[in-house]
Amino acid sequence: MSTDQHAPGRRGGSARARILEAAAQRFYAHGITATGIDAITASAGVARMSLYNNFNSKAALVETYVEARHQEWLRLYQARATDGSTAEERVLAVFDAYADHAAAAYEHGFRGCGLLNAAAELSVDDPARAAVRRHKEQVEQLLAAPLGELTDPATAQRLAEHLSFLLEGSMARAGLEGGPDLLLRARGFAADMLAAL
Length: 197
What we know:
- The chain is an all-alpha fold.
- Helix content is 72%, strand content 0%.
- It is built from nine helices and no strands.
- The protein has helices at residues 15-30, 37-44, 48-54, 58-81, 87-103, 114-121, 127-147, 153-177, 181-195.
- Helix 5 runs antiparallel to helix 9 (181-195) and helix 7 packs across helix 8.
- It is elongated.
């Protein structure tokens, strides 16, 4: 979540919302494991008990954080997809939403996909990790649906998988670079592939 929307020291909204904002900011900037409950409550301006009144554990807070990031990305995608009148534009809207995510202002700069960063810290059987997997599967299906308008179902599914690999690889590299440039290049590769269909 970007600092322009979630500035430290901001005290508006419910305690739950402030806790989630503070956790999102700190989890993204410093990692889940490195972020303690005291740091979150201090950033949110709430008592420790307030955190536990709203989330029964740090794990529950992490699950809520993952879901909130998923919803945040879906909003970016939906804003881009509504402008897409063709199947090609709706495929490229997925890339545009990732680029929008990368271009947002972050406290310590863009560090890649917050969901994959979170998943890397979670155990294989963690429910939040499973939620990240579902998000990535949904992204692939958002690619496959308009591709199905351009080609047969089997080819559409293979191409959606290919594009999701291109997207995730470019997202990882963009995180290392600290900005959206590589995502925009990947979008260009995707546009070339679509033009060749």
